[in-house]
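Running low. Any example?
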Amino acid sequence: MSDRIFFTVAILVAALMVGIALFPGLNQLPSGPVSGGNTDYKRIEISGTQLNRMVAGSQALIELQQLDGQTVLYVEADIEELNGDPLRSPHFVLATDLETVFAGRKVRITVSARAADRYGAEALQMNYALGNSQASGWKEFVMTKDFQEVSFEYDVPPRNKGSEPGYDYLAIVPVVPERQRAILIRWVTLEPLTPPRPVE
């Protein structure tokens, strides 16, 4: 190998290593609260690698999987891990911008999901919860081996005057009558349906 080729390759390798060092998050999966940034807030979609933003909340198993060339979220829970508390269940944290936009409005939550092939759940439950402990309550939907869209609407209470924006939470869990059960989530959408009500 000539000196010219050797040094050219060495420089390219060094530049590549510097680039990797400068951009450590290049291949990292999204995490943290779901935000409506870069949208018109009419329809917030959580899909693909954005599903990685789900928080286990307990010892539940959550992981991204590939299914027919599509990224889906696998959610598995044990009967002893779910206690009815949305924040101690698998859930998405909704950033303060969404809490502000959704406050005082009716919001439709839609999930495309199915029973997992292993430990397939016969049903899933969803619960929209506010940081101040108000919540929609658990809404239950039957699952099959085929993806289907299930949704519910919740009148999100308005924020109290003078209160600081906080986080809202969307819990999505398999119904676990015994041992463990699992679901696959393809996407989640949140859509405000009405104008906001006045701050109380």
